[in-house]
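Supplementary Note 3. Input sequence used for the single-chain structure prediction.
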Amino acid sequence: MKRLLTILLFGTLLASVTGANETERGNVGSISFPSSASGEAQAHFLRGVSILHSFGWKQARLEFQAAQKIDPNFALAYWGESLCYNHPLISEWDRETPTAILSKLGKNLKERLSKAPTEREKGFIRAVDALFFGDGDTQVRRTAYMHVMRAMHKQYPQDDEIAAFYALSLLMSAGPAGDGSHRSNILAGSIAMGITARNPNHPGAVHYTIHAFDDPVHAPLALPAAYVFADIAAAVSHARHMPTHIFIQHGLWDLVASQNQSAYDAALALYEPGDKVGDMVHALDWGQYGELQRGDIERARLWISRMEKILQKAPEQPRAQGTYNNVRARIIIETGDWLVSAVTAESSGPELLATGLSAVKLNELEVAQQAADRLGELAAEMASQNKDSSYYSQSNKMLVIMQKEVAGVLTIARGDQEAGLAILKSAVELTETMRPPNGAPNPLKPPHELYAEALLEAGNVSQALDAYNSSLARTANRTLSLAGAARAHKALGNKIAARENYQKLAAILGERDIPLSAEVRSETGS
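The predicted structure, written as discrete structure tokens, is reproduced below.
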């Protein structure tokens, strides 16, 4: 008999699997998800779905596995676990585990559907069957999944869980910027906000609102959701991190830093040897960026030392090494404490960018050329792999942009200012063919900002100001762009505008002392 069990998980007490003692499980939000299960199996299932909405993969699958143990024929428990092994919004990395889990429910779709007693539950099973057993590459299967969820949403328009997973499926199936993804994102956000109107504490609704409007233009629509999500799903590291996607879009650097500190703490507490380190390193990556923007260089270095410890724990995980390369390169680029490293076959894109820019600043132009050449090789290598995801296409473009950044400043350093500026402008133009930034800048040096710096140095002050303003429109309150815009306004005699930018910098930096601080104090009289 179908039972509707509404779960309000704000510090609620749930019975353990053994039924021994009630224990505090932590905050994960509030959902209502009717199913054919009851009792403890349904309680674990509800908590699993709540955590799944926050992308807490490890925690969620433990709940779904507990539900399976209690009720081995509970189809939705297998459905839920199958969704716990891939990040839905980036490249698929594990198709085998989800298919193996669903195969435990039944060896084919007919058998799996026979375990789902209602048409609604059968719909969820059909959706993951299309996602994991369907033909075609990742994008094709995600699109097929979306079509199943769309049909379910049409059949059950008042069902918030179907609506939430439909909204996520729209985000999953959206391709690169310029091919309809914008429309899909807006539709996903409107659906998610409709759920929030009925249930302000729904973790999926606020989460998917953030993802849908995670760009400079639409970010204000998601700011309320960001504040809510920061509070309602505190048990999940990703939920603590996710609001910073919107805080970054508003240049709220104190919140970016503190919220990622909180996300890192939650991930570290959950970590066990062998776990993926994604939540930890992602929080470290963005947390360091927030610290650098607010001028806390000491804290930014602390994030690097933490990253070194994670790399020691999980040296085999590419994301650990990749993030370590990021945080070391970023501090060089953001502080201007230039450092030239050897260019090798193992050098990553961010390392090559930091070395290339450093080499130009330190007049080691041959090393800069090596960095530019190697970036070009990496871009060509990635393009030749012909991966099935738009994620790889975007990554290839990032490498091309970084190559242009190094090549542009190098060409200027060699005396051809006009050609160098043209190269940097082409980096800006390529950047604008991609989706707007949705987090810490990638590449680490925003092309608009680098182009603006080169223009200002060349004496093209009005053009430089335009480029700085474009940079700030894409990366609000970014410290180096604010400083550059202030200098350009001052050079143009725009005293009021210059002072406004310097005052913004003064508010961001506070009492912290970095090389820029003296200039800010001089211009603001503080």
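The two ends are 70 Å apart (CA to CA). Residues 251-337 form a domain with the Serine Threonine Protein Phosphatase 5, Tetratricopeptide repeat fold (CATH 1.25.40).
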